[in-house]
Amino acid sequence: MKTIFPGLFDTYRLKPSLDQTGRRIVAQGLGGARKLLVGFVAILICSHSAFADMKAAERWVDEEFKDSTLTRAQQLDEMKWFVNAGKPFQNITVRVVSERIDTHVYEANVLTKAFEDITGIKVIHEITGEDDVVKKIATQMSLPYSIYDAYINDSDLIGTHYRYGQVVALSDFMKGEGKDVTLPTLDLKDFIGISFTSGPDGKLYQLPDQQFANLYWYRHDWFSRPELQKKFKGIYGYDLAVPVNWSAYEDIAEFFTVHVGELDGQTIYGHMDYGRKDPSLGWRFSDAWLSMAGAGDKGIPNGLPVDEWGIRVENCSPVGASVARGGALNSPASVYAITKFVEWLEKYAPPGAKAMNFSQAGAVPGQGNIAQQIFWYTAFTAALTNPDLPVVNADGSPKWRMAPSPRGPYWEKGMKLGYQDAGAWTLLKNTPLDRKKAAWLYAQFVVSKTVSLRKTLVGLTPIRDSDIQSAKMAEVAHKYGGLMEFYRSKAREIWSPTGTNVPDYPKLSDLWWKNVALAANNNLTPKQAMDKMAGEMDDRLQALADAGQERCTPKLNPKKDPQYWLDQPGSPKQKLANEKPKGKTVSYDDSLKAWD
Amino acid sequence: MKSVFSIIAPMICASVLLLSPVAHAEKYMLYTEELPPYSFKGGDKRGAAIDIASALFERSGLDYEVKITPWKRAYVTVENTPNTCLFPAQRNQEREASFHWVSPLYISQTAFYGLETDGLVIRTLNDAKGLKIGSYNGSAAAEYLQGWGHDVKTVAHDKQNIMKLSRNRVDLWASDTLSAAYQAKKHNTVLQRKLVYFSTLRALACSLDIPKAIVDKLQAELGSMYGDGTIDKIMADYRK
């Protein structure tokens, strides 16, 4: 490791109000010491620059980035480009922020060091809660300050970024003022999430850094037990296997919680979820729950004209969320989706689940008493392959599998079927150009082909097709319970993030947790909660329209008799006479084929 | 409901600041802790956070009173008492549902500090693992670091940490950068800033009974305080 004192390079802040005056705090009367220190700093800076070169690149390539889809020579060529491109930014300390998942922890603790050693540019990669990331980027967008030089911001905000015009259009940046710092081997076509991070104008606004999906998770070992298979078939008349529809999911939930109850001496449950009034409850719904029930329209990635938030868009402008304005937020399908969430949480989840938030609930399946979970983030894959857990076999292979999410009765072919998180590099226009360029170099470094396969193996959040199709990934795929099978399939396109119908994610998203919590805690019925939410969503859309956006501003439809819209083709859809068709299941192998 | 006056100790009342013109029927009690240079108990200066909160309420035409009290007491009071606010609070997911938020009053940064002779190289948060890190009870910095598995040694008052660091009883001090600068100057101590590892939006957290219209008004006024340079000016005054 190089002997540098990062604190001494820790200059930061562009605006006087945010400046941290002086890197060292020297008490009065220590003028001589200060002079000595200045000299010391100069020596360190010189020695630092001397190390930021190809020698460091070779060391990192040989020790950390051995797994790559590039040859060693290609990796070193790529690193040589970074060494040269970084030269003008030696005195900059880049500050970026992202949410807390394994991939970003690896970036913050390892890749910042590699980048600094190779380019000489110091990066501080802060890690915080996703909610905080969103608040910080919204704050920077609303104030005349550059808080961070770049954000890894979920592409759920693409509709926000496109409309406000405060985010750098990367397509333009790469051809224009950022041309000299754009990696020739970036290979945008290799990124699997580019469609999620592009605006309706076709321009790229964000560069994917990590992706994970929300899939069905189940205990393959329990489902494979002959005595349980026999018992299930005896009660429900079909095979205990991967549920294709919500009816089967519900039957399996009931089976394990009510009819099995105890397995190998422990109480078990057929379902896991959470219901605490907390912002994380909102993700459970804004992350495509209504689309899984089938509330939106057909059309990939999000459904047009009505998306999975139930917002109708006409000519790129949101026109309403309530059924009375042509939206689907309080439509029969949406009410059904919330009803099932509340019912399953009460009937089939462990006691206490209702009082949990996302983080608390996320750890529960790994404890070994949950049979299945309809809404499970693959970002937990690495955590659930920990050999110390009761859900992992002695040889390290998982006892569980992930499979395509089952769909609700309103779902039709051609609709999205789940959520995919695409944390993506986002540059704001109010960041000074030199800092923007230095941050863009770091962003490209952590997604470069030299680095990305190794990063994918650590965090299991793939972004490049070349990594997914690599020989290395084929070699290790069996360890990850179906994750790579998902990413090799076309399903990765119909599990999509929030899309461009949502005009201001930070200003609208709290409505989810505030209203769904009312239903989850029985303060309101699901219908009452969704009626309330739809009205509030319309009001917020109108407020956005009044405040104005740079483009595609909401223009609300006049209210009509909801029946008018329910009678039209597509979403919002009429209530089905039978919302519980017969349960259908398929084998694990067949469920994977269904992805194609 | 218990009156705020019966909750606050008489000794604290001595430092209460009565500052506002009466322009609204309600009087808002604003709670903060003693945290130089963000809030001082007595003395010529009130502190950066108090100056910002006071200016915000004055410009919004709202009657208010600032009370300095231990943080945990302030927190519980605002959770349970109408027409009260707490500052400077770290807005996070766990707290989001408990208050109305006006944010950010200012943006702060937290850093690891050490001694220049300690030879410690801290390039990332992870590099501080295994080291003894000083912080204070109930601080967001301590909570954050403990969440990463760091060995955090807390004391009642942050100012004690500078002495602990000087005497090698902790390896690093995790502190707000402005507070550290103030304490270093006060104690005539040379610190080495190792790594500024976290930025925080500091907010005004208000009791849920306060009407949304008032919260919106405060938020809009705060925006204008950034726009016209008021926040810059106040913060610059405390960096001198």
What does this entry look like structurally?
In chain A, strand 2 (about 95-100), helix 4 and strand 3 form a beta-alpha-beta unit. Chain A is globular and about 70 Å long. With about 600 residues, chain A is α+β, with helices and mostly antiparallel strands. In chain A, strands 2, 3, 4, 5, 11, 12 and 13 form a 7-stranded mixed beta sheet that branches. In chain A, strands 6-14 form a two-stranded antiparallel ribbon. Chain A is about 40% helix and about 10% strand. Chain A folds into 2 domains: about 50-205 and about 420-490, D-Maltodextrin-Binding Protein, domain 2 (3-Layer(aba) Sandwich); about 215-415 and about 580-595, Periplasmic binding protein-like II (D-Maltodextrin-Binding Protein, domain 2, 3-Layer(aba) Sandwich). Chain A is built from 24 helices and 14 strands. Chain B has 2 domains: about 5-105 and about 200-240, 3-Layer(aba) Sandwich (D-Maltodextrin-Binding Protein, domain 2); about 110-200, Periplasmic binding protein-like II (D-Maltodextrin-Binding Protein, domain 2). The termini of chain B are far apart. Chain B has about 240 residues and is of the alpha/beta class. Residues about 1-25 of chain B have low confidence and may be disordered. Chains A and B meet through strand 1, helix 4, strand 3, helix 5 and helix 21 of A and strand 5, helix 7, strand 9, helix 8 and helix 9 of B.
